[in-house]
Design a protein that fits this description.
By secondary structure, this protein is mostly beta strands. The chain contains two helices and eight strands. It is globular.
């Protein structure tokens, strides 16, 4: 998770709505953050272990699902946040974001691949204290790491 957090924190702020990288949380967002109730924008990062059974030949390769969900006050802002995470504000072919890019801070093995497994999924996320809707967009990647 550390390499993913480091890459997220190093993304280009100008690529995000309001030119600010939203705070990130692991597994779920807290209700309170810095002593006040948390409202979007923010991003939740989840790592889910693969379901494949390990075999003698492949027990050093770990498959993990990486899911990032961006929460925002508008659907456009949630979509733009995921776009910034995927491409880091540059052309897709430059591999600067999470789509098929690298994890330079990874120290627990060798990154074999990180690639998107589905298109972004937009949805309503609920209502805030003022009754206004909040929105989310989720994106999923497959991460393959060979342990050394």
């Amino acid at each position: 998770m550390g390499a993913i957090q480091t890459k997220y924190d190093g993304l280009t702020a100008a690529a995000f709505p309001s030119s600010t990288i939203p705070p990130r949380f692991e597994d779920r967002a807290p209700e309170l953050w810095n002593g006040v109730q948390l409202y979007p924008p923010y991003v939740v990062i989840q790592l889910i272990a693969g379901q494949e059974l390990l075999t003698f030949e492949s027990d050093d390769i770990e498959e993990t699902r990486l899911i990032m969900t961006a929460y925002a006050a508008t659907q456009d802002a949630a979509d733009l946040t995921i776009k910034a995470i995927r491409f880091n504000g540059v052309a897709k072919s430059l591999l600067a974001g999470f789509d098929c890019g690298g994890l330079p801070a990874l120290t627990e093995g060798v990154l074999l691949s990180i690639f998107p497994t589905r298109s972004p999924v937009p949805a309503a996320a609920g209502k805030g204290k003022d009754g206004a809707l909040y929105y989310k967009t989720a994106m999923e990647w497959n991460v393959s790491v060979q342990r050394t």
